[in-house]
Please model this.
Amino acid sequence: MALFIAKPDLEELRQHGEETYPFECCGVLLGRVDDVGGKRVHEVVRCSNQRTESPHNRYFIDPRELVGIQRRAHERELDIVGFYHSHPQHPARWSATDLEEAHWPGCSYVITSVMNGVATQTNSFDLVAEGESKSFQNEELHVE
Amino acid sequence: MKVLIPTPLRQYTGRQSTVELEAGSVDEALCELTTRYPELRKQLFTAEGELRKFVNVYVNDEDIRYLERERTLVKPTDTISIIPSVAGGSVAARRGF
Ligand SMILES: [Zn+2]
Model:
């Protein structure tokens, strides 16, 4: 699997992480999946981090917000192909919590490390489910 | 009425993003849906038949957990959305959180 994203869209989600620093940002990636499993981002949708208890190291997207995003995407023949969030003062690698709370197999989870307010590395991970177990696979992030 | 299927569950609905069906309640709708697509059942429900904690079911813009849960009545013009939760964090979860 690979995730294709336009440079301005990538910049948008990285900037979101800088704006919310020292808290985690989060959002949804709308797009389409091609026949060979590549995912192409058409739009980045910002969400607010509803985790008020420890927003510096946790994130949670309000399901009601997701419902609206999914419905509007459907009307435009787009799909939810992934999500993004930031890791303030942490590397752009998924955590045990990220895996435990990931429930969208086939979707991309894009993580940006934000160090001292500046977005550094951005990586994408593909959630793969096999039976009862799931894992994150490194995924190529193609910037176009 | 219409049921919106999230991307990860479409492998169980023959790639369909929406399913049209007739139902008077959420329970009837989910029952009809999982009868048509039996592999969905395990994705949505635990072995005890409870909706999985990370599976959110909405009637239009309302979470059925704040309505009458599966007994919530629906009209032909309503849309049911199935939406798995989206969360995470950079550190390990604390117990009981
Ligand atoms: Zn994370």
